[in-house]
Specification:
Distance between the termini: 48 Å
Order of helices and strands: HEHHEHEHEHEHEHEHEHHHEHEEEH
Number of strands: 12
Structural class: alpha/beta
Number of helices: 14
Strand content: 5-15%
Low-confidence stretches: none
Mean pLDDT: 97
Largest sheet: 7 strands, mixed
Number of domains: 2
Helix content: 25-40%
CATH class of the largest domain: Alpha Beta
CATH topology of the largest domain: Aspartate Aminotransferase, domain 2
Amino acid sequence: MNPALDLLQPYPFEKLRALLGSVQPAADKRPIALSIGEPKHESPKFVAEALAGSLDQLAVYPTTLGLPALREAIATWCQRRFRVPAGWLDAARHVLPVNGTREALFAFTQAVVDRSARGLVVSPNPFYQIYEGAALLAGAEPHYLPCRADNGFNPDFDTVPADVWQRCQILFLCSPGNPTGALVPMEQLKKLIALADQHDFVIAADECYSELYFDEDNPPPGLLSACVELGRSDFKRCVVFHSLSKRSNLPGLRSGFVAGDADILKPFLLYRTYHGCAMPVQTQLASIAAWSDEAHVRANRDLYRAKYDAVLDILQPVLDVQRPDGSFYLWARTPGDDESFARDLYAREHVTVVPGSYLSREVDGENPGAGRVRMALVAPLAECIEAAERIRTFVQSM
């Protein structure tokens, strides 16, 4: 077996199951899970209809490159969403459909990392655990940048030593972040692109939460937006990852895309051809429908706004918790140890949250997720309100 498999840590939900395994929750309360970030809003009916209407495509082998119509729909969406000038994104060279961002982030790392160079894969801390596992299995060393409250829950990139940037092969960004919901500002994105040029590393921007934000008049920028401001029409060293899971409440469709530097995507396509991960044709046709419509995405944001408004009204008087810049998470400070908070909350109120220390790594004696819990506001509004009321009761009784 690959010895690097022994380096992989248990997934956060495995740790959570172990923490709660022997706990008997209150029998008189129904369970409410704020732990897993799985969207529970209704999937768009028109996407389901497009999928059902394409089932004859089950008899067709899909190509890894994907249908030209899907790549065009994605390129058009990027132009509209991130104000990419017409003609910059060549759908045949700059866009590649993928089976969700999780698979693509892992595969991308395997294709990009030079195993002979003792390279680093740099990521925020806390982070999406795929970044770490992908780095280890690609033969790279993960390097973690703490995301603290005093820096808006973003890494302090200005304090990263030059030797780290020199060894960096991939810099993972997540904006809005998981679990913090923090956005990487436009000016910071442009500084990071300059660092990538100086030290020759790739920026891999995980933007799967990019469509969950609050101000309809000011959608958050992404890495493509920074390329536009810099006049960087070749998107050199810049690759973005997007998904329909959160944007369109379609986690089971397993559909997303990678876009950016064509010189990186070309060998990545070669890797994926061997990897055997072509998106089924019927899924591609349903995805075209989803990327071509914004009404359902705006309606989705309205549902999350209502939940944030209601839940924060209940929790802010008793917990240190703020509205994030985006995503569907709350990153709440706990009055005491985060593991004890999650375990006791489950025992007394039958509400499940994730200890923040499970989403982070301890570096130099500091775990930046310790003393916090992640709450995913994915359940229906009434359920989120009930969970918030139970959490308030629990905190007040501590």
